[in-house]
Write a structure and sequence with these properties.
The protein is mainly alpha-helical. The chain is built from 5 helices and 2 strands; from the N terminus they run αββαααα.
C-alpha cells in the first residue's frame, strides 16, 4: 500500500530527526567522556600553570537528560520509520484520527524536550566558555581546545562537540515543528472527510430500506 504524500514527507522528516537526535546524543556523550565523566555544561574551568582543568562540573543528571532525551527521540523516530516501512510493504495499515491525535501529543512532548535540551546546550556551553575566556589566556573557546588540559587527554575537541550537539538540537527542533504542522494538516483532512462519510450512510440506509421494502411487498 502506498502511503499518502503528506505521510511520506513526515517520514522523511522523521529520518532527518533521527540523524539529528543521534548526533546530538553522541556528541554530548563523547564530550562528557573526554572530561572523565564530568558534565562540562555550566562548568567552571581554571588555569593550572599553563594548562586548563575543569574545577567544577554541573550535576551529571543535566548531561544525562540532554543525551537521554535526544537518544530516546532518535530511537522513537527509527522505530516509527521501521514500522511504517513494514506496514506499507507487508500490511494494509492506515493511521486514523486516534493515531494522529496520539502522534500529535508525542510530537508536542518532543518539541518541548528538544527545546529544553537545545537551551541547556546553548547556555551551558556559553557559561563554560565564559569561565575559560576569563582566564585571559585564550580569546575563544575554540582556541581553548588547542591549549593543554589536565589530566592529559582531557577536553579533546570539547567545543566542537558541544557546538555540533547544539546545532543538531536546533535543527531537530525545526524538524519536529514541521512534523507537528504536517500532522495537524492530516488530522484536519481526516476530520473534514469524516462528516461526508457520515452523510453517506443515511442515503445508503434509505436505499437499502427501499429495496428490502419492495422485496417484501412483492412476496
Amino acid at each position: 500500500m502506498a502511503l499518502p504524500c503528506l505521510q511520506r514527507a513526515e517520514l522523511t522528516l522523521f529520518f532527518a530527526a533521527f540523524l539529528c537526535g543521534a548526533l546530538a546524543a553522541a556528541a554530548l556523550t563523547r564530550t562528557q567522556a573526554s572530561f572523565s565523566g564530568s558534565c562540562p555544561l555550566y562548568g567552571v574551568a581554571h588555569l593550572n600553570r599553563s594548562s586548563f582543568a575543569l574545577s567544577r562540573g554541573s550535576d551529571l543528571s543535566l548531561c544525562y537528560f540532554v543525551a537521554g532525551a535526544s537518544g530516546l527521540l532518535a530511537l522513537y523516530c527509527l522505530l516509527l520509520l521501521l514500522f511504517w516501512v513494514y506496514s506499507s510493504c507487508i500490511e494494509d495499515s492506515q493511521r486514523g484520527r486516534t493515531g494522529l491525535r496520539i502522534a500529535l501529543a508525542i510530537s508536542a512532548i518532543a518539541i518541548f524536550l528538544v527545546l529544553v535540551s537545545a537551551c541547556v546546550l546553548r547556555f551551558g556551553t556559553h557559561s563554560l566558555c565564559n569561565s575559560i575566556i576569563s582566564q585571559n589566556t585564550t580569546i575563544s573557546c575554540y582556541e581553548a581546545q588547542k591549549v593543554p588540559w589536565t589530566p592529559p587527554g582531557t577536553a579533546l575537541h570539547f567545543y566542537s562537540n558541544l557546538h555540533n550537539a547544539e546545532n543538531s538540537s536546533w535543527v531537530n527542533l525545526v524538524l519536529w515543528c514541521v512534523i507537528l504542522v504536517l500532522q495537524v494538516i492530516q488530522l484536519k483532512s481526516e476530520t473534514a472527510s469524516y462528516p461526508s462519510l457520515q452523510r453517506g450512510y443515511p442515503e445508503w440506509s434509505s436505499e437499502t430500506g427501499l429495496l428490502v421494502g419492495s422485496q417484501l411487498s412483492q412476496s
